[in-house]
Amino acid sequence: MTAETDAKLIEEGRKLFAGEWKFVWASPSIETLPPMASMEVAFAGRSNVGKSSLINALTGRNALARTSHTPGRTQELIFFEGPDKSGLRLVDMPGYGYASAPKTKVASWTKLIHQFLLGRATLARVYVLIDARHGIKDVDQDVLKTLDKSAVSYQVVLTKADQVKPLELEKHISETMAALAKHPAAFPEVLVTSSRSGAGMPELRAAMVRLLGERA
Fold first, then answer.
1. Largest CA distance in the chain
2. Which residue of 8, 122, 124, 148 is most buried, as measured by CB atoms within 10 A?
3. For 152, which DSSP code?
4. What is the pLDDT of residues 19-35, one digit of tens each?
5. Cα–Cα distances in Å, from 204 out to 77, 96, 140, 159?
């Protein structure tokens, strides 16, 4: 990929996410999913990894996705749609792992996540968000294994990179890359982001524009 191509994709990504983004659907179960139409990219991650903050930073909106200081507040698959004819939907998935909710409810969210990943033809990629301060945990590995079994490609996005010292961040990036080498469906490149500073957002937007082009 040339620098010129990268710059073009970044500019196209900027334009796409500068447009109007809106909430369109919430699904508490597989039976209530919206009809398959636009290409979808989903964001998965542990309950406190910052999925909603990332979606807000991507779209340049403070309150598109609901953020909370209480992990586990997103209890449904939340769908957001881009500008008319953009052909792209974002899906905010319930956080897995720790959540301040009864175990039966956490189990139902987890089941919903796994069913969605395995049976959605319009799902082009899953971005698995990993806290840059901690790296991949055992609970992340379970989701990565499910993704390996599905037909969906996935890419790891490190979040909260602004809260990690540079040397420690480099170490966590290397450890993450080494862990992903054992997962056949994983995209080899790791994206490093910060919702607070905006770092990595142009590259993430560009990655989605590239996906749209591949699916066209």
1. 51
2. 124
3. -
4. 999 999 999 888 999 99
5. 21, 22, 20, 12
215 membership: H or E segment, kind and range: helix 201-215
Delineate the domains of the chain, giving CATH numbers in brackets: 3-214 (3.40.50.300)
Backbone CA torsion sign across 119, 124, 129, 132: positive
- How many Å separate Cα 162 from the centre of its chain? 18
List CB contacts of 38: < 8 A, sequence separation 6 or more: 81, 82, 86, 87, 88, 89, 122
Backbone angles phi, psi at 175, to 5 degrees: -65, -40
Ranges of beta strands (E only) in 38-192 are 39-45, 77-81, 88-92, 123-131, 153-159, 191-192
pTM value? 0.91
